[in-house]
Amino acid sequence: MFVIFFNCLFHFIIFLFWFKSNKNDFNYKLLNIFSYSFDLIEQVQRVINISKKILKKIKEKLNPQSEAVELFKYAADDVQKMLHYLSATIEAFCKHDEELIEEKSIATLKTEVKLQVAHQDIVDKMYSRETMNFAREDRLFIINSLIEIADLADFIVRRIRVHHPKMSEDIADILLTVSADLRKFGGLLEELVLSLLDNFEKAAKLTWEFHKLERSMWKYEIEFLNNIYKLGTKPKDTVYYEILMKNIRLLVMKSVRFSEGARKLIIKYTF
């Protein structure tokens, strides 16, 4: 970089001497002025580009964890999107919209693939060099918890794609409420992961929100099952709904366990 800079300076000095010694030849001088100017601009631009690259490398050296942090952010965003798409799939199921079921379930499955790629990237970087303040086992806990939640969302939408019986309005209303709560869990999961990266105080408060939401969902689960049995649903559909609700409950429980594990991490790295 310094060689290029001095080269530019040298050319500029030569140009000044030349300018003084060739006052009489105006046209020739004007032509060379443009020539030297373009050459100088090109040299300066090269210096600027090289400087940017050097500054970028220095920044990466000073903040080696930035790449890993970004990967965790992508993973958190993917989980949030998966639960959003899962919720949309359930809503389409309640409305008997086959096209929308297909569209949203495929979106869920594609996002799960992206999350698996992020998981592999995080693990690869984890064992190449230290990239975050969390110990390796704690980083694995975070990403593996997100993967487990995503796997359940994947399983639920696959079952809905295979079979989606028509349901009564009472059952659909309860399932729509559960669906809305799943979206909230998705938002909480993303926010908690992001807060774990830079704001422990906020993360600690968020962990309690999971339990509040969990308690409200259990009430709807019991009401949902009561309606199924009262309405005399077909045996195969009854089993289907039971399995559907069981897997939604498992997804919620894994989300709550993750929040409890996150609280332990906060305590571990704060005191």
Distance between the termini: 47 Å
Helix percent reads over 70%
CATH second-level architecture of the largest domain: Up-down Bundle
Radius of gyration: 30 Å
Question: Which class do the helix and strand fractions yield?
Answer: mainly alpha
- Helix count equals 8
CATH overall fold name of the largest domain: Methane Monooxygenase Hydroxylase, Chain G, domain 1
Tell me the domain tally.
Answer: 2
- Note the beta-strand portion: under 5%
What does this structure look like?
The protein has 271 residues and is mainly alpha-helical. It folds into 2 domains: 2-60; 64-270, Methane Monooxygenase Hydroxylase, Chain G, domain 1 (Up-down Bundle), CATH 1.20.58. 88% of the residues lie in helices and 0% in strands. The chain contains 8 helices and no strands. Helix 1 (2-21) runs antiparallel to helix 2 (26-62) and helix 3 (66-94) packs antiparallel against helix 6. The longest helix is centred in the N-terminal third of the chain and has 37 residues, at 26-62. The chain starts with a helix and ends with a helix.
